[in-house]
Amino acid sequence: MKLLAITTSEKSSLWIFGYGSLVWKPDFKYKRSKVGYIEGYSRRFWHGDNFHRGDKDMPGRVVTLVEDHDACTWGVAYEVTDSQMEESLQYLNVREAVLGGYVTKMVEFTPREKCQGSLLALVYIATSDNPIYLGPATPTEIAAQIAICRGNTGHNIEYLLRLAEFMRLYCPEVEDDHLFSIEAAALALVI
Ligand SMILES: N[C@@H](CCC(=O)N[C@@H](CS)C(=O)NCC(=O)O)C(=O)O
Fold first, then answer.
1. How many angstroms is it from 95 CA to the middle of ligand 1?
2. What is the predicted ipTM?
């Protein structure tokens, strides 16, 4: 995967925006990270996962971004520089693209500390033409699927609860009805 590196001063660097498992498990080396958001997208548990959190018979549900003019999605942007760039992109290409079916896009990221100004970031999005894209369902239906699925990386409910935990800890002011309604429905099933 050849990507134009964003060159700043004498060092080259690239920002990568995470909004799902990448917010709590980037698993690549980076120079620094910032909590913030991208505009024009909603985060939805509408993508299927038949590797990490599900299998071919029972695909799990993971998040993707859907275009939504009035919405914004909070997450974490990671800056990778020099040797970190190739290593992180190679790793994410396997984790996100090959195994996850995500494609890449460049988006504008706004850090929570607005004085720092917005920046261009790479993001991985699963689009509706993806073979394992599952699409919309009610929070109860999504929760019921998450509650029973597991894959090579672990239980699907862990993926849900860690994302909800991140939002509470790092973005307590953000209302995410989609995420928290699914979390509440899934917890009601397993507790
Ligand atoms: N692209 C989103 C979602 C990434 C994501 O959750 N991808 C799945 C692949 S289907 C993953 O890496 N799962 C690892 C895990 O479940 O621990 C992000 O930026 O966080």
1. 7
2. 0.93
